[in-house]
Structures are given as structure tokens and as C-alpha cells.
Amino acid sequence: MISYKQAISKLKRSKIKIGDEVIDSINSLGRVSASNIFCNVNNPAADNAAFDGFAIRSNDTKKLSKNNKKLFKILGTIAAGDKPLKKSIKKFQTVEIMTGGILPASFDTIIPIEQIVFSPSKINPQNILIDKNIKKNQYVRFKGSDYKKSDLIIKKGTILQSNHILALKTLGINKIKVKKIPNILFFSTGNEITNKEKIPNWKVRNSNSYYIQSLKKNFLFNFKNGGILKDKDELVLKKKVQKFLNSKIDIIVTSGAVSAGKFDYIPKIIKNFKISNYFKGVSIRPGKPILFAKFKNKEKVVFGLPGNPISSAACFRFFVYPYLLESLGILNEKPIKGILKNKFIKKINFTRFVKSKIDTTKNGKIEVEVLKGQESFRIQSFLESNIWTLLPSGKSKFKKGDIVDCFFPNYPNITFYS
After folding, report:
1. pTM for the full predicted model
2. pLDDT tens digits for 389-407?
3. CATH for 336-416?
């Protein structure tokens, strides 16, 4: 049995190649950028007004004061969306300009509308009165001050969010290259598993496939349900794996039949194929019997998760999802650091994935409570939880006040650190 750290290292060495495709940027939510995306325009495209007001040449105001006032003739109005004014500008002239309007080349500063004194009156404005020196570059958005041509907008390996789409569309980027969405084929196993609603007490409702399917949008994969394999379906699984090797499916995930019981046939079937970087059994709880194998000369892998719902959920979150990140070229997730509210004791050589509840204190600290009911069969504590706490091997006693690593169960931490 290997450690969790060793298992993750094997996963990193076994990543598969996921292809690229070009899509419309408006459809890129949740996709992964396959290359760096650079700006091909300046933003703003030209110097423009950051405020409603009047544009002037600051040099015309250098000698002005309360005792030396000057009238500036109003030439007209520039609104956002108007073509740039190309009229020749003389000394002591001005133009009214609205937010977003293009600043004529002759002008270099803007006086906000609230500071304007009109002449002869506000009802009949023909001039504005200025009685002080106005600084250059006031209330001006300068060309390229946000993005310049060739600036990097989005790094390769970024999970694209709504704010990225806003930037891409603002900058006129309509097509981008993204990683294709990995395809997962999922099998539940066991005579006890059923999709029926009314069941006798020797049957178990199928929940693992529905839970993992529900994660597909948040965790970047397509899901195909392969159905339920019974205890004597060894040959059925073997045929399905053979078919998988020549399909567009990238990853097989199974639930159950990976332990050491009479009908736990997943490891035996997988070993019939040419595989590499295989492991079976990791020093973790829940989920110790987990299996992984990469097929030789194929960009395909298999994960065998334990059948217990909580074990299956934990193993998907801490094995399958990190593997997807690696294969998609995404940087590793950063844990959320929380302060432990209560003590917890575990075996020193095991990594524990602990059902927990995260909250913030009045002074802004993140606190994590380890919930009661950590047994892998208990779903009530999983329902009450909103975070997994990862307690690494090498330490047995975790006391109140310790800083611990936390991971959201139903969506990636990456969303909060992009």
C-alpha cells in the first residue's frame, strides 16, 4: 500500500493527452485555455473622457486666476460613439464631452461638469468661465492604459469564468483555443446496486453514478453512464474495457468491486491488459482500496473507486479530479487554509479526508469544524458538511487552532484563486 503523496506522484507521471479545439469565446465558460491569449488591440482604443465635462488645453489656463478670468468658447458637444472631432482648435476654445467620448487631439484635460460656470447663462451656454490653472490629464482614460497590443490577457491552463468572457468580448476576441472536455465512462458494480425506488433491505440504491454525474459541469468532464455491472459480469467488463480502448472515452471510473472480496473482480480484469503506473490500495481514509492504471501505448486510464458513497465521493475529489487538472494542463489547486475548531486524532501513516464545516468569524478568520460521524457509511454528516479537510500522513494529533488544508466538495478551489 502506497501513501497518498506517492499516489499523486504516479498520477502526475501518467497524465493523458487531451486534444484542443477552437470555439466561440462566448461559449467558453468552464473551459480551459489551451494557449496563452494575447490582446490584438489597445484598450481604450483612443484617449477618451472618464467624466462628463468640458475638454480644454491645460496650457491655456496657466496664467488664469480669480483676478484673471477667461471665457472659453464652446464649439459643440462630443458624445460616446461620435466620430473624433478633427476641427482645428484655437486658443481659449472648449468642447463639451460625455463619458466615453473621444478626446480631440488638441485637448489634454477635462473639467467635470459640476465645476463649470456658464456664460452668459446656464440656459444659454456659449462659453465657460475659467479662473484657475487646470492640471493636464485630468479625467482622461488614455489609449492602451488598460491593455496594449500584444499584452497577455489569459494564461494557458486557465479555467475560464464569466469575467474572462467579458474581457474577451470587450477586446474583440471571438475565437479561442481550448482543451477538449475529457470523457468519463462510469460503471457501478454489485448485485446489491439498483436504480429502483422501492427496494428490499438487502438492496442498495444507486447513488454514486448520480453524484459524480452531477459534478460534470463544475469539474470539467463529460459523463457517460455505463450502467450497473453484476457480481458475475467479469467478462462483460473485459469486453467493455476492450471497446473503451478504441473509443473516444478518455477515462473509465468504476465504483465498487475493488476490495479483497470474492466478487471484487475489477483489479483482476484490469491486470489482463497491458498497463503501467498501476497502484491498488492507498494509505487513506475513506477510500483505501482505490485502484488506478494507465493502459500502455494508449491515452486512456482507469480509476477503480470503492463502492461506499462517501469513499467514492472522496476518491473522486482527491484522485480523479487532480488527475483531470494535470491532464488539462491546469496548475494544482491551492488549499483553503482554515483554523481547526476542534481536535481530531487519526493514524499517523494515513491521510484522512474529513467531512467538515467551514465558516468565518466576525473578525474575518476562516474556521473549520470537523463534524461528528466520520464513518464512511454516514451520509448525514456529508450533507451537513461544506468542505473536505485534508489531514496528511506523518501527524496523528490535530489540535484546536491548527492550520489545515481544505477543499470544496462540489466545485474546484481553482475558481476562487484564478
Report:
1. 0.88
2. 999 999 999 999 999 999 9
3. 2.40.340.10
